[in-house]
Amino acid sequence: MSEYDRDRRGGNQPPLPKPYGFVSLPRRVQLQPPSGHQRYEHQRGYLTAVLVARSPVHVASGLLEQRPADRLYPLVKAHVRSNGRVVIPATSLKGCIRSIVEAISPSAVSATKARLPHQAQPSRSLDQLDPAQRLFGTLGYQGQVRFSDAVLVGNRTITVPTPQLFRPRSDSISTYYEGSELKGRKFYMHGELAQGDLPLEACPIDSRFTVRVDFENLTTGEVGLLLYGLGLGGATAGAQAGRGQTSVFGNHRGD
Q1: What are residue 236's DSSP bridge partners?
Q2: 103-126 pLDDT per residue, tens
């Protein structure tokens, strides 16, 4: 039952549980000059990784696809493709990993409609950038990390019937604030899939995606931060990547 249906039926019913939680904002954003692109002073190389979907993955192409053999869902919202292969676009993947890196490092919140406290606002100076800005870039600075499209291994997809989604209620004070304080950064959790009548073409659970990540002028600590953002942890992986070119296989959340 949706919140709308519950409101129509009346009565003092508790709100439905939300499929997300909040990560607290940094108390202080750490700023320092970026490494730049004019000379190499730190580590450079690339990572090859396999991303594993922990829930069905759908990146909308904006197109409807005909499925004549499927009487239940003859039309589905198609997953984005590149050269005929199902992919997670590099820009989508980079934005996802950036959000994780921002949350686990002393970085500002780069994209929000909420009223941010002063200490969580991004730097406007290209001479002083936070860790996420240095890695992934900001307006006027390219950043030190580049992603390829993540290509689905096997190209197999399924149809997942999902509920119709509504826009985030960024103006909801009770949802995003504790008094006058912002609760933090919102992250959606994995769990039991909600059922609906909107058919999506999706990559099933345990789908594998191959991706390449190139980096340049990253300190060993920044390489480790990138690995944590990709779902990898531990000093060994960071030390291996810090020496240059390496092949890393790990997991990344698929939502």
Answers
A1: none
A2: 999 999 887 767 777 878 888 899
Tokens of 204: 């099933």
* Eight-state DSSP code of residue 122: P
In the numeric block, the tokens 């909600």 are attached to 194
Side chain identity, residue 51: L
Q: Are strands 60-66 and 20-23 parallel, antiparallel or unpaired?
A: unpaired
Q: Which residue has the tokens 């810090």?
A: 242
DSSP, res 52:
E
Q: Compute the distance between CA of residue 234 and CA of residue 224 in angstroms, rounded to an integer.
A: 8
Structure tokens at 225: 């931060």
**Among candidate residues 142, 155, 34, 175, the one with its CA nearest the CA of residue 86:** 155
d(CA 228, CA 126): 25
H-type alpha helices, the chain? 3-9, 90-104, 131-136, 173-176, 220-229, 235-242
CA dihedral of residues 109, 115, 119, 124 (deg, nearest 10):
60
Cα torsion 188, 235, 52, 211: sign? positive
| Tokens encoding 174 | 């009770």
Which residue is it, tokens 């030390």? 239
Q: Provide the token pair at 22.
A: 């909040």
Average pLDDT, stretch 225-249? 56
Q: Report helix, strand and coil shares of the chain as percent, to nearest 5.
A: 20, 30, 50
The pTM of this model reads 0.79
Q: What is the DSSP letter of 209?
A: E
What is the distance between the alpha carbons of residues 81 and 155, in angstroms, rounded to a whole number? 10
